[in-house]
Amino acid sequence: MLNTVATAVAGLPRIYELSRAELGDWCVEHGVPGYRADQIRRWIFGKRVNSFDDMHDLPAALRGLLSETFSLFPGKLVDHRIASDRTEKLLLELVDGELVECVLMREPDRRTICISTQVGCGMGCVFCASGLQGLKRNLTTGEILEQVLRLDRLLNREEAITNVVVMGIGEPLANLKSLVPALDSLNDKGGLGLGARRITISTVGLPEKIREVAQLGKSYNLAVSLHAPNNMLRTQLVPVNEKIGIDAVLTAADEFFEITGRRVTYEYVLLSGVNDGPQHARELAKLLQSRIAHVNLIPMNAVTELPFVEPTAPRTDEFVRVLEQCGIPATVRKRKGADIDAACGQLRLHQMTPASSLVAPTPLAMTPP
Ligand code: SAH
User: Fold this and answer.
1) Of the residues 32, 117, 153, 241, which has the maximum number of CB atoms within 10 A of its CB?
2) Taking the complete model, does pTM exceed 0.90, yes or no?
3) What is the pLDDT of residues 342-367, one digit of tens each?
């Protein structure tokens, strides 16, 4: 079990905070041949070791130096939940006591992990548990990778992570500085061997940052959280929309598609009586009609503190039907780990604050169903 493994000293930097090149430089600076960097990274990313001592083909002196200089898993495992569908969720306590969540989802041919990029979130989407108490801080590259590596160690020897979705706590594009090197490490030689096409970054829609991701020269997938087909409703649900506006988000997403050739996914959380009517579906279809786009509908994952619920199945089906009739491909996201508070931010929220002491936001004026 991870919580019983030797994790090295908590105050030391995680060794994978360093890129492959930086670790190579560190080796050379310490009189160690550069090729040792790849060897070390193979142990971490490929062979799933839990301590420097287990890196058998390194000289003992180097193993000693590594343990004095770096840590491997300084986070503390506070909770590990396994759902009836075998979805697993970890709640990690970071060195400064902050909490972060990550999830492993299993399907017959896929093992997808969902990772967090910030402690809390500053975007304030009214249906989301992650932002209820605002943004505390950005995660470091090492803190992002620790989630990946710990989830990877939950897998059997013959299993591997096949997909990464950056859809956990936080706004990934508000922390590109830490996220990009973390994703690079997964791509790099000796990393997890995950192609960029298997990685999806979900964003509330920050236009300049979307352009920055497009310019990385990598084939990451982009998912844009639209959630409403017009500015009035979107600003109610996604407050940062007030300063940005749907047009600017769509224009940036169009540029992303032009530059990368990757079809953009638009996420749309279905909130019963709020944004789930056939008229909303028609308006959404009109907005996306001229675009190569895909809509991923997410039934609202109930959060005790929040006044929103998912629509009934027939109403969801009707929404999909309207979109498809207008030629917009749409899928409804399968719910995973419902019995373990697996929706982003819920576990952290409930660990931090008993449900009764949270002040729920005022419910939105509901539009007629
Ligand atoms: N900040 C990023 C990542 C958020 S989590 C973004 O905005 O895209 C990934 C998706 O889950 C987002 O579309 C988010 O709006 C959605 N989401 C958040 N809370 C939810 C809930 N309670 N039920 C369903 N979807 C939710």
Assistant:
1) 117
2) yes
3) 566 676 777 776 443 443 333 343 33
